[in-house]
Structures are given as structure tokens and as C-alpha cells.
Amino acid sequence: MAAFLPLLLLAVAANAALLVSPSLGLNQDGLYLLDAKRALTASALADWNPRDATPCGWTGVSCVDGAVTEVSLPNANLNGSFPAALCRLPRLQSLNLRENYIGPDIAAKAIAGCKALVRLDLYMNTLVGPLPDALADLPELVYLSLEANNFSGPIPESFGTFKKLQSLSLVNNLLGGKVPVFLGRVATLRELNMSYNTFAPGPVPAELGDLTALRVLWLAGCNLVGSIPASLGRLANLTDLDLSLNALTGPIPPELAGLTSAVQIELYNNSLSGPIPKGFGKLAELRSIDISMNRLGGAIPHDLFEAPKLESLHLYLNSLTGPVPESAAKASSLVELRLFSNRLNGTLPADLGKNTPLVCLDLSDNSISGEIPRGICDRGELEELLMLNNVLTGHIPEGLGRCHRLRRVRLSKNWLDGNVPGAVWGLPHMALLELNDNQLAGEISPVIAGAANLSKLVISNNRLTGSIPSEIGSVAKLYELSADGNMLSGPLPSSLGSLAELGRLVLHNNSLSGQLLRGIRSWKQLSELNLADNGFTGAIPPELGDLPVLNYLDLSGNRLTGQVPAQLENLKLNQFNVSNNQLSGQLPPQYATEAYRSSFLGNPGLCGDIAGLCSASQGSSGNHSAIIWMMRSIFIFAAVVLVAGVAWFYWRYRSFNKAKLRAERSKWTLTSFHKVSFSEHDILDCLDEDNVIGSGASGKVYKAVLGNGEVVAVKKLWGGALKKDVENAGEGSAADNSFEAEVRTLGKIRHKNIVKLLCCCTHNDSKMLVYEYMPNGSLGDVLHSRKAGLLDWPTRYKIALDAAEGLSYLHQDCVPVIVHRDVKSNNILLDAEFSACVADFGVAKVVEMAGRAPKSMSVIAGSCGYIAPEYAYTLRVNEKSDIYSFGVVLLELVTGKPPVDPEFGEKDLVKWVCSTIDQKGVEHVLDSRLDMAFKEEISRVLNIGLICASSLPINRPAMRRVVKMLQEVRADARPRLDKDGKLLPYYYDDTSDQGSSV
Ligand SMILES: *[C@@H]1O[C@H](CO)[C@@H](O)[C@H](O)[C@H]1NC(C)=O
């Protein structure tokens, strides 16, 4: 035994040496780094080798005099907790871990050790919870970025005590409370970026005007209310001011003209009123100013254009009056001028464009008169010229024909006359040429062959003459040709038939003649063909029936002869009109019904089983129809007897039930949240089992037609004793919880896109909720049934926007914030006009903001296919999961498919869309029932859906941003204004509903 002992000791010692020896050479800093590595998983750290003597050569590590001073591992796929051990590095000055997956918190105790830290960059990680006070104690900290995490709660008071901080970025978190006054004490600040947080409504602290060293102040999307404090004008070093996307009111303080270093001023999307103050023209560095989407009035101050470096001016969607100042013509740097949707009048400066390198000019939707300045494109840079809906007169300037960069020209709805300059037809980059509703004359020039990028040519309602040149066949990207309401003549050139991209061909109301094109096989995308009211002759080509997506066919008012070809039965037509021709023969059986009567009127020779058609042949089939008539009568009589019997039975049964109800009903109490004109008795009287319109985990929903004719929806919750504890064990029944959730959240909410809870009725365990009635049911029901045809793209788009606005209100305007937790198409209801409301708040949660971490939920809420992936590892209640679900709803709208479907195999809709796009392309996910005239818009909404449904919550934009993005989908759709200049609801694009005669 004794002999063994030394041996054993030796072995132990050798082992210990083996364990330690690789690190023996590594210095202390290196050991700390290895310690930090343990908190993370990342292949990027593979070369952090314990056998090295110093860590100074390791990836991401920098040293000065052998001591680690910087660790920089941006976008390195680091996954794990905050590497607290790094704060033991005594000389660490810079720590950059941006764009990784570090979470859930910054180890507050450990971070206090980072005494030498100057820069800390944690942009885009997965950090949550309150901001740690300890950060403010770091004595050397100059730069702190916590942008794009999910920090919540108010900004701690300690953040007013930073000693050296120059740059603070908290953009895109879930921070609450108000924008704090105490930040005005961090006198060293040069950049303060707090945009896109879920702050409670509050003012811009005037104290921020004390931060005289400030260069950048970003407070966009911070729920700011009240007026802009004049004190901000003291920030003489400020280059960037962004207060956009808030609810600021009142005038723009003239003091802002004191921002002598300003380069960029963003005040768009607020409710600012009054005139634009003078003085901005003196700002020597000013390059861009955006005050669009406010309520500004008065004239544009002429000195504004005197700012020598001004490149971009956005003042659209205000109520500005007066002319575009003459000084605009002298702005030598101006590239972008967007003044659309104001009340500007007068004429444009005659020299506009001569000295100005304009790229984009948008003056649409004003009352500007006079001529388009001759030299508008003299500098040759112009790409977009948008002046639709003004009262412009005179000719289109010849110079535009030499304007080779032009991509978009929209001059519709003016009083322009004269010939369209020939060269304009053939500009090589032109994608959209829209000249409709003017008095333009001349012919479509054959130079159009050069318009290699032209996709939309809209020249309807002018005085154009001549024939459609055969060169049109070279415009390979042409998607829309709308030239209705002109005086075009001659035949259709056969080259038209080779345009493979053509989706809309709208040529009604011209003097075109000859035969319709035969043998067309290229029109795979054609959805609308309108050749009505011309002089076409010959037969309807049967091949039209083979066009795969044609759904609008109007050949009425021509001199077509022959039969209606049977092939047309292949088409799924929304509009079918061949009336007022000289067609003859039998109708194809599918069309020989009353529903198509108006499609065939005015063709004396046409026969079918439609009363009034083909009167000449009635006599011969007289006997036949008499027999049919008799059989129908017998059948109808039998049906009436059956229905009457059933009705009598129900009536007896119900009157028995009602007697029972009457005894009960006196005990109910009603609490109303809106003015209602009925009593609890009225409601109880109309709860019939045959009026049940829905049934779910918490209760049944009835449609109730009240005595006064008013229609409401009544949700009767299952009695307390039933369905015990489905959701929150020990907290009462699911029905109780859902009742309380609905009453607590919905009772107070007033928003057009959130279903109105009119009142609730209670009696012991029985509870009823009374809502406004939504006659078109739920989006899910309509979209995933045969009724989906009712939802054309503009309707779907509107539904998406409505629902987004409702959710945005819950997330960003309600205090405290409300998380719906069960966003799905079945909880989006549609009223008679298909406006959408978010409904069913049975599992909604109010997220307390008062400094506490968000609540954890005991149980997952939500529905299959809509549940955000992070629910797998956290049950934190968070708006981001609603945004995911909303993304799924957007994908449903775009694809027409349900969130889960056997067709997808193991995948859900989100995964199916992603993989299908990857493998086959976007076309294969879009709902084929949609009019592909909107393909661009549809694709953009698809993208927004995919961003919302990002697997990482931080990548999902806040709902307010989603609303904005959806609105931008129709950025070119000028919002229409009513007589008072008030905004009418976003709906149809001015141009897209123009060519169609629906
Ligand atoms: C403003 O900027 C100038 C030039 O960079 C600088 O000298 C001055 O100290 C700054 N003012 C303040 C208050 O920081």
C-alpha cells in the first residue's frame, strides 16, 4: 500500500499538469476571453486557442501593449448569454457584438466591471427586459447602442447621469414611459436616437434644447404629442432632426430656422398646422426637408428654395396654397420636389428645370394652371414627371422627347392639347406613360418600337387619331394598353398578338375596324379585353376561350357576326358582354341562362333559353316550354308545403322555449359602452337557435334582429359551471376570463377598425356580449370559401390596411398596450362595405408598462398556423407575436390559402410560401383568382407579410411601420381629397380604375 502512494500522487500531479499545461502560457486576458467564449456558441471563435500565449492574434481581438482593448465580433452568429467575463478585461475599451443572437439580458452586475469601456455596441441582438442602471455608471462610456433589441419598461432615471456619453441609440425597442426630460442633462450628448419605441403619449421635452452639442436627434415614431418646443432651435450644431411619425400639433416654431448646421429636417406624418416659417433658406447646409403629411397651410415661403444645397423638398399632403415660388427655378441643387396633394394654384415658374438638376418632380393633385415649363428637362436628369390632376394647358414640351432618363410620366386629367411630341412615344427607359383625360391629338408614333421598357401606356379619353402602329408589337414589356375614348381607326395590327406580357387591352369607344385577331396564343397574361363600341366585323375567334386568365371580355357595340363560340365556356368571366352585335345561332348551354341576358341583348339572330331573346323561334318550342312550366309549378308547390310544415313546427317549439325565457329575463342587467337604443329584454327576445352564426371555445354567437330593425351580434358565453378551466387553471373558467378580457379591453376602445362592443348583459353565471353586427362575416370564412371571388385585390388590400390600423392602435396608441394574442383571419370581421375590424378579444392581454417586465403567460394562446415560433422558448406576451400572426393573415390574403393545409405537407403557410418562392418563383404563390394587373402591389404586400412573419421577433416591424409600408404599396395612388381638402380613404389608384368601364 505504502509503495503505491507515491505512484498515485505522481499520477495525480501528471494529470493536473496535463489539464493546466495548455493554458499555462496563456495570459490572464486570454483566460478571461476563454471564459467569455463559454457563454457563447459560435464557430467564429474557433481560433481562440488556449495554447496561444496571448489572445492578441485571435479573431475579433485587438491589443495595445499586450493588453486586450477591443473585442469586435459583429455579425458573427454568436448565440448565447451576454459574455460577462469580458468585463474583467481591465483595459477593454470597445466591445462590438452587433447583429448577433445574444440574450436575454445584459448581466447587470458584471457590466459594472467594464470600467474602461468607451464603446458598447449591441445593436440587433435578442436582449429583453428593463435597461440596466449599471450602464450609466460606466465612467468612460462614450458610445452606447442598444438599437433593435426588445428592451422594455421606461428609460431609467440613471440614464440622466452619464458622464461622457456622446451617442445613445435606443431605436426600435419596446421602451415605455415617456421620452424622459432627464436626458436633457446629459450635456455631452451628440447623438440621441430613440425612434420607434412604444412610449406613452408625451411631449418633446423642451430640455432637449439644452443639449447644445447635439448633432443628431431622432425621435421618429415615439408617440409624441403637443407642439415642437422652440428650444430645439438652439441646437446650433444639429445636423439631423427627425420628429416624423408622431402626433405633434401646432405650428412649426420659427426658431427652427436657427438650426444653422441642419442638413436634414424630418417632420412628416404629424398634425402640424400653420404656415411654413421663413428662414429655412438661410440654412447653408440644408439638403433635405420633409414636412409632408401634416396640416400646413399658407403659401410656400419663397426663401425656402434659397437654401444653397437643398436637394430634396417634400411637402405633399398638406393644405398649402398659392403658387410654386419663382425661386424654385433658381434652386441649383434641387433633385427632388414633391408637392402633390395640396391646394397649390397659379402657374409654374417658366424657367423651372433650366438650372435645376431635377430627377423627380411630383406636383399632382393641385390646381396648378398654365403650361408645363418648356425647359423642365433641360438638365437631362428627369426620371419622374408627375403632374396628374391639375388644370395645366398648352402642349407637352418638345424637350421631353429628348429626356432620355424619363421612366414615369403621369400627366393625366389636365387640359393639355396639341400633338404628343413624336419622340416621347419611344423613350427607352419609359415604364409608365399616362396621358389620359386630356385633349391631346396626333397619332401614336411608330417610334414606339424603341420603348423597350414601356409597361403601361394609358392614353384614354383624348383626341388621338390614326391607327395603332404595327411597331407596338416591339414593346415587349407592354402590360397595359388603354386607349379607349379616342378616334383611333383602322384594324388591330397583328403584331399585338405577340405581346406576351399583355394583361389589359382596353380600346373601347374608338373607330377601329376589321376582324378580331385570330390565332392568338401569346396572351397568357391577358385578363381584360375591351373592344366595345368600335366597328369590328367578322366572327368572335374561338381561341379567345383558351386565354388562361381572361376574366373581362367586352365586345359589345360592334358588327360581329356568326355564333358565340362554345370555347368561351372555358372562361371564368366576371364581365361578359357581346350585346349589340349581329351574332346569331344557338347560345352555348352555360350562357343560355337568365343571368347572362344582358350579355347578349341586341343580337336579333341569337337563340337560347332566355325570355325575350330569339323571339322569332319562340313558336316552334312553345309546347316544350309549356311542359317545363307545368313541371316547375308542381315542384314549387311541393316545396312550399314542405317549408310551411317545418316553419309551423319551429314556431310551436320556440313559443314553448320563450315562455321559459320570459320568466328568467327580468333578472338580467345591462352595462353599455356606447349609446344603445335597446334593452336587455329586446336582446333576449331575439336569441334564436336558428340565428346562431358562430360557436367557439367561449360561447355561441347569434345574429339578433331587434324590434327597431337594428341588427347586432350577441355572444352568449358558456355558463360558469360548464367548460371549467380550459385556460388558466385556478383563475376561474375560460368563459369568465374571456368575458373579463373582452369587457376590460374592448369596452374602452374606440377605433374604426376594432369591432364595437356595444354593451354586456349579466345574470349570475350567464353573460352576454353585444357587438355591432358585421354582415359579411369573417375574412377567413369569405377567403377560404367559394365567396372568395367577392374579394378582388383592392378589397383585400383595404382589408389588410384596415386590420393593420386596428392592430397598430392596440399596440401603439392604447395605454397600456393591448396584445390581442389570437390574430387570425377568422377574427377579422367584414362589414357591408368590406371594411375590416379586428374582433374577439377573449384572450387579449393588457401589457403593464409600469416598469415591470412583461407578463409571462401560463399557456400559449393563438391558433394553429398563426403562432410565432418564439413561443417555443418563451411565453412572454409581446406585440411581436401579434405581428407574426398578422403576417400570416397577409400571406392568406395574397395566396388565398389557409394557414395550414394538407397541400403544404409538414409546412405551414409561411414555410410553404418561402420554399415555393425559392424553388419556383413568386408567381406560384399568388392567388390565381386575383387580377394580375395588380401584380406589383400584390408582390409588395407579400413581402410585407414575409417581413412580419420573420422568425426573429426583432426583424418584425412595429405595427405602425407595417401600416406605413402598406400605404406605401400604393404610394403612387394619390390619396383623393374632398372639396375641403380632407383626405378621402385610400382605395383605388386613380389610374387603375380608369381604363375599366366597370
Ligand atoms: C459645435 O461644433 C463645433 C465645430 O465642430 C465645435 O467647435 C463646438 O464646440 C460645438 N459646440 C458644442 C456646444 O459642442
TrEMBL record:
Reactions listed under catalytic activity: L-seryl-[protein] + ATP = O-phospho-L-seryl-[protein] + ADP + H(+); L-threonyl-[protein] + ATP = O-phospho-L-threonyl-[protein] + ADP + H(+)
Protein kinase domain ranges (all copies): 687-987
GO cellular component, one term: plasma membrane
Localization terms from the record: Cell membrane
Residues that, per the record, bind ATP: 716
Transmembrane residue ranges: 627-651
Family: Belongs to the protein kinase superfamily. Ser/Thr protein kinase family.
Name by which UniProt lists this protein: non-specific serine/threonine protein kinase
